[in-house]
Design brief:
By secondary structure, this protein is α+β, with helices and mostly antiparallel strands. It folds into three domains: about 130 residues, no CATH class; about 60 residues; about 140 residues, Histidine kinase-like ATPase, C-terminal domain (Heat Shock Protein 90, 2-Layer Sandwich), CATH 3.30.565. It is built from nine helices and 13 strands. The chain has a five-stranded antiparallel sheet with strand order 1-2-5-4-3, with helices on one face. Strands 7-9-10-12-11 form a five-stranded mixed sheet, covered by helices on one side. Strand 9 and strand 10 form a beta hairpin. The longest helix has about 50 residues. The two termini are about 30 Å apart.
Length: about 425
């Protein structure tokens, strides 16, 4: 099953997914940036104002001093709130922000300053919850930012969809023209829209291949036409000569005349087969009726060879049926498979099984890896079978058996005619 998607769908999916990832990524960065900026601002503010208030300790004040509703200063480590003391030691200096379990945040600053007891470390503690956004305000702000980001995402999505369709339109047009049956003449293709360098190269290469295919077909048709004409003329002359020779009352002449006549008939059938293979006809309108009588007529041509090679031959037709194929080409498939099997199975067994779904020819001869005595290879017979199967989109295979010989199979991929 083909699950391939259009190029525009793939481009849209990739870019929209990328845009969504970027939106989430930048949203997380923006959120963390706000929190980081708040904390740094609080630390720097406390580090800036604390030294000014630490002067009170040198003017006679001591202990804990409430500067304002947010800020307290301490001249001793021991009088710090327990929750702060657990997080810093006596020798610590600097600035830091602590976030407690009850969702309170405190900014702490420590520095050496002059007190009544001399130079010692003093502390400033500021409750920064009073100046930071509460959860509701921050949630509203995040929602607004997300809504704006979603709006930008929708605008980007519409732009991406439009550009993806614009980019993929020439490729889709080219694919439709290649798939269309209107281009059987292999004329050069052209597409509308904005062409990229890669598409121009692809289009140039496709047209070059189409031109070469068209030239090849034309040469093949011309060759087939010329050869068939040139072969039929001498065969007609040969037939005329045979008819004269048969008037002679000579047994040897009669025997050779029959051999020549059979060879001419076989040649004519071969030429006709080549012409049918090269022709593009509508096979749906041409049927062959496969029956025991039809198969028997084909097998009759091999009776002398079967007898000469001492082959035990067996044929079986499952049932009568009709098939959308040229009768001569269907007969050529059976003939070539039988010819190959009989010539390779001297004093052996050859069986042919035919059903509405397939043909199987089984022998116990020399197999595919050896050349039978007195028989020069497999000739062009199997190549003809392959070409006919390709023409009708059948499946052809030939393989060695587990024992001796081989099995040739043709599986019909088209519907049986009714």
């Amino acid at each position: 099953m083909n699950n391939a998607k259009p190029m525009s769908s793939k481009i849209i999916r990739v870019y929209l997914l990328g845009a969504m990832v970027l939106l989430v990524f930048y949203g997380a960065i923006f959120n963390n940036t706000i929190l980081y900026t708040e904390n740094k601002s609080s630390e720097r503010r406390l580090a800036l104002i604390s030294p000014y208030h630490f002067k009170l300790f040198s003017q006679g004040f001591a202990g804990e001093i409430q500067i304002d509703p947010m800020l307290k200063i301490y001249d001793q480590y021991d009088i710090l709130p327990p929750s702060i003391k657990r997080r810093i030691d006596k020798s610590w200096q600097g600035s830091i922000i602590f976030h407690f379990e009850d969702d309170h945040e405190y900014s702490v600053f420590a520095k050496q300053a002059m007190t009544q007891k001399g130079l010692t470390i003093v502390y400033a503690l500021e409750d920064i919850d009073a100046i930071e956004w509460d959860d509701t305000e921050f949630a509203i702000f995040q929602t607004a930012i997300f809504g704006f980001g979603l709006f930008i995402y929708i605008i980007a999505a519409l732009f991406i969809i439009k550009m993806a369709k614009r980019i993929s339109t020439p490729f889709s047009s080219l694919a439709d023209k290649l798939e269309s049956n209107d281009n059987e003449e292999y004329a050069p293709l052209s597409v509308d829209g904005e062409l990229s360098q890669e598409l121009v190269q692809m289009l140039t290469s496709i047209n070059s291949y189409r031109s070469r295919i068209r030239d090849t077909f034309m040469r093949e048709q011309a060759f087939t036409r010329y050869v068939s004409h040139e072969l039929r003329t001498p065969m007609t002359v040969i037939r005329g000569g045979i008819s004269i020779l048969r008037r002679l009352n000579d047994e040897k002449v009669q025997k050779q005349s029959s051999r020549i006549d059979n060879a001419v008939i076989e040649m004519e059938q071969l030429v006709h087969t080549f012409l049918l293979m090269a022709r593009n006809e509508d096979s749906d309108t041409i049927n062959v009726d496969v029956s025991d009588e039809f198969i028997q007529k084909i097998v009759q041509d091999f009776e002398s060879t079967i007898h000469a090679n001492q082959v035990d031959f067996h044929q079986e037709l499952q049932c009568d049926f009709s098939l959308n194929v040229q009768p001569l080409l269907f007969a050529a498939v059976i003939k070539n498979l039988l010819k190959n099997a009989i010539n390779c199975s001297v004093e052996g067994n050859v069986s042919i099984f035919i059903s509405p779904q397939r043909i199987d020819v089984i022998d116990n001869g020399v197999g595919l890896d050896a050349q039978p005595r007195g028989y020069e290879g497999f000739g062009i017979g199997l190549n003809i079978v392959r070409d006919i199967c390709e023409k009708y989109q059948w499946q052809f295979s030939i393989k060695n058996n587990l024992g001796d010989g081989c099995t040739a199979s043709v599986i019909f991929s088209q519907k049986i005619a009714t």
